[in-house]
Amino acid sequence: MKANADIAVVGLAVMGENLILNMESKGFTVACFNRTTSKVDDFINGRAAGKNIIGCHTVEALVGTLKRPRKVMCMIKAGRAVDAFIESVRPYLEAGDIIIDGGNSYFPDTIHRVAEAERDGLLYVGTGVSGGEEGALLGPSIMPGGSPAAWEAIRPIFQKICAYTDDGEPCCDWVGESGAGHFVKMVHNGIEYGDMQLIGETYQMMKDGLGLSNEAMRDVFARWNKGVLDSYLIEITRDILGYKNENGEAVIDRILDTAGQKGTGKWTATSALDVGQPLTLIGEAVFARCLSALKDERVAASHLLNGPATAFDGDRAAMIDDLEQALYVSKIVSYAQGYQLMRAVAAERGWNLNYGGIALMWRGGCIIRSAFLGKIKAAYDADAHLVNLMLDPFFKQAAETAQAGWRRVAATAVRLGIPMPAISAALAYYDGYRSARLPANLLQAQRDYFGAHTYERIDRPRGEFFHTNWTGHGGTTASSSYDV
Question: Which of 49, 130, 183, 422 would bridge with 366, disulfide CB 3.0–4.6 Å?
Answer without folding.
Answer: 130
